[in-house]
Amino acid sequence: MRHPRTRTFAGFTSFLAWMLFLIFIKDLRGALLYESAGFYETSIILLFYLSIPVFFIWITMGLISGSATLLVTYFILAVFFERTIYTLPVICLAATSFIGYRLHRTFEDDIKKLRLETEEASEKANLLGAEIKSRQNDTFRIRSSLERTTRLKRIIEDYSLALSEEDVRDSIIRNCFELFEEESRALLYMVDTKRQELKLVRSRKSDTASPVKAKQGDAFDRWVLRRRSPLLVGDIYNDFRFSLEPKELDEGFRAVISTPLTSKDKIMGILRVDSRKKGKFTQRDLRFLDIIADLSSISLENAALYNKVQDLAIHDSLTGLYVHKYFHQRLRDEIKRALRNNIDISLLMFDLDDFKLYNDRYGHSAGDLALKHISSILKDFAEPGDIISRYGGEEFMLLVLNKDKKTAAKIAERVRQGIIEAPLVLRRAKTTITASVGVASCPAEAKTVEEFLMLVDARLYKAKRAGKNRVWDK
Question: Which domain does 111 fall in, by range?
Answer without folding.
Answer: 4-123
